[in-house]
What does this fold into?
Amino acid sequence: RTRELPVDVRKIAEELGYPVLERTLPPGQRGTIGRDGGRVVISVSSRGHTDGELRWIIAEELGHAALGHTALVASSAPGAAPAIAEPRRREEEREARAFAAEVLMPEEKIRTRFAELAPRIDQSLGMRQRETETDEVVHVLARMFGVTPTALRLRLEELSLLH
It folds into this structure.
């Protein structure tokens, strides 16, 4: 089934059984997975985040939940930081970011949309014009996919579309 852009990450989270709640979280914490009564919820801090950032936070937390990461198991005590080994935590963060990137910027759709806009970059003359066109393409795609330009640029680089 074709998904509309930008992807409705809140709806996907709900459909997978992880409702999204906006809450006041401790300073420095953007999002977390935890229990709310008998259900598992994604809690996000909406304060100080753009829509694109908020969508990314939800997608990343959904990644942790869907991938069964250890933080979820350990988060039964309110405010208790899960005690998991640093290498494992880093690996889980990497996995959750990859999950978020694919949910918000599906590879096939990114490749298709980029191919439509890439000629602008390829036809530009000189380094400065090329950089300007690349920035414009990144911004157009970022708006289309509802993510930050930084996240979009990283995804394009990851897929070897930008060098």
User: Anything to note?
Assistant: Residues 41 and 98 are 21 Å apart (CA to CA).
